[in-house]
Amino acid sequence: MKAKTVVFDMDGVLFDTERxxxxxxxxxxxxxxxxxxxxxxxxxxxxxxxxTKEFLIQxxxxxxxxxxxxxxxxxxFHEKVKANGLPMKSGxxxxxxxxxxxxxxxxxASSTRxxxxxxxxxxxxxxxxxxxxxxxxxVKHSKPLPDIYLLACEKLGVDPKEAFAIEDSPxxxxxxxxxxxxxxxVPDLIAPxxxxxxxxxxxxxxxxxxxxxxxxxxxxxxxxxxxxxxxxLGGIKTLDGRKIREHRLLRSGTLMNTTGEDREILVKExxxxxxxDFRTQAERENQPxxxxxxxxxxxxxxxxxxxxxxxxxxxxxxxxxxxRDIIAExxxxxxxxxxxxxxxxxxxxxxxxxxxxxxxxxxxxxxxLLEQKEGAVLWHCSAGKDRVGVGTTxxxxxxxxxxxxIIADYMKTNEFGKEETSMLLKKIGAxxxxxxxxxxxxxxxxxxxxxxxxxxxxxxEQIDTNYGSMDKFLEAEMGLDKEKRxxxxxxxxx
Length: 494
Fold this sequence. Notes:
Elements: E1 5-8, H1 17-31, H2 37-44, H3 49-60, H4 66-84, H5 92-101, E2 105-109, H6 114-123, E3 132-134, H7 147-156, E4 163-167, H8 170-178, E5 182-185, H9 194-199, E6 202-203, H10 207-215, E7 231-232, E8 249-252, H11 260-269, E9 272-277, H12 281-286, E10 296-299, H13 320-336, H14 340-354, H15 356-371, E11 376-380, H16 387-399, H17 403-416, H18 418-432, H19 438-449, H20 453-467, H21 470-478, H22 482-492
Parallel strand pairs: 1-2, 1-4, 2-3, 4-5, 5-6, 8-11, 9-10, 9-11
Antiparallel strand pairs: 7-8
Helix pairs in contact: 1-2, 1-4, 5-10, 10-17, 14-19, 14-20, 16-17, 18-19
């Protein structure tokens, strides 16, 4: 069921208040010789007044003057806000306007006391967006316990399982997850641990990415046992009000692990007629596609053998040595690139548009689509995220889907592949042992095994820079003149 409710945390999500608090606490801590105040600040993020007091007394002893500390902190905080204003986080108005336009119920659940929450949202001019506001003084225990989110959902009249929570802190994620909500983490001061990654529905860099996650709710995976990243693009709406026909356009990862029942679903339920394989010869030999009755295979490698990258597209062999080789390659790539793994992936995506070979192969993909008179066509690579992600981006653009919905579909890979990615990272982490720089390497590997908005934006940017627009690129490189594009839309839209 599509969730039509979003409940926001406030500090660190809507406003950049936590950095102000950190400055204030650091000043008071230094003046009173309180050691490791920064650690204390991070430990209190997400706690209400009662739990913060208990935390600080446990840390600094029974004689810690909490009331004096809290009073001075509040005074200094308000002085700074009065002098400089309360900074709003990027994307707040954009996501609130989207949710309002789409008739979402919108709530706010903050550990900050109710009166101060109301003051902040009134001053920022965003009070009108929230049907329900719950402050930390309205529950006995705030985050990480679920009480505050349960109360917010109760007041909104919704089942927590049918609601998103947007949080920045580990305590907030624990609270929202404990309430049964889909917790989207937008980290602020505290990077998520593996435990928090497990609890979160997904992680986003900012509120714009969180909006993409919410927009993509209606895009569902095909429920196959052996493949987690297979989906029907049917139902996705275009800018002119049409939508993609169901059971016609399917994107996927490798099909080797499909069960007999999976294959029957694809052939009989989805009417699969053609499989376009984007993989190299080595990948196909390592994980060959199953032979399906009445289905025509088309070999269409997007990359030449020597240029296959070090993403999860290459992570197909189960042998330990293969994984160790990938670790070494990641270490080398991140270590020699000043911007690390993200820049590596951005460059790889831009390379799909720069490479004459890749563009020629994507053009053949469109030719296959134009020849598909009936039934479904499925295209796949290994993980179904990079080569398929770019191909799907070009196809959805040709069909007239908005850039935002294209990115929303692209980002679904993280949701569908979350369990597999988590298991893979645990195995790789165990194999790495206690090597130096383990955590940065794992963070880099996670980037390579998932998708980021910045990756696919590299494709849009490369096209805009070199061709002026997506339309000009599709005509010049994909052979889609006006007539062919109209034919494509007539075939696959309704």
